[in-house]
Amino acid sequence: MLANVAEEGKAKSQDGRMAIKEYMKPFKTRKIKNIILGCTHYPIYDEIIREELGYEVNLINTGKTVANHLKNILGEEKNKIQTEKIFLSKPSKEFKEIAKTILGEEIQIRACKDLQ
Q1: pLDDT for 68-89, tens place per residue?
Q2: Taking the model in full, what pTM does it have?
Q3: Please, are residues 52 and 28 in contact by the beta-carbon 8 Å criterion?
């Protein structure tokens, strides 16, 4: 549900907050100190998760780690790469809008079938 809400651009809406409230119940009850955000959508919820839990928590953000690694790779290869291309197995208008929001710029998206 969290991925769907994020893809609809509603992560910080009442829908997103209600979903986080529901999902965080077992963590909050047990006062879990370390939570791995295993989906690339989940870092969008970082602030809301912290607010909902109301205690100090270590959110291990795999999406940020992967993004930083990719940024380093692209940075090292910048002189060799003229353009970056994004290929998705299922392109959608929603993804394009989310990517624009996150990256702050328009991007071109192609379907993986276009690789052939």
Answers
A1: 787 787 776 555 555 666 777 6
A2: 0.63
A3: yes
With 0-12 / 13-18 / 19 or more C-beta atoms within 10 angstroms meaning exposed / middle / buried, residue 9 is middle
The four Cα atoms 92, 96, 99, 101 give a dihedral, to 10 degrees, of -130
Q: How far apart are CA 60 and CA 74, in angstroms?
A: 23
CB proximity list for 40: less than 8 A, separation 6 or greater: 62, 63, 66
Scan for tokens 């969290």, then name that residue. 2
Q: What backbone torsions phi and psi does residue 32 show, to the nearest 5 degrees? A: -65, 130
Place of tokens 């959110």: 59
Q: Which two tokens stand for residue 50?
A: 């912290």
List, in order, residues 6 or more apart from 76 with CB less than 8 Å away.
Answer: none
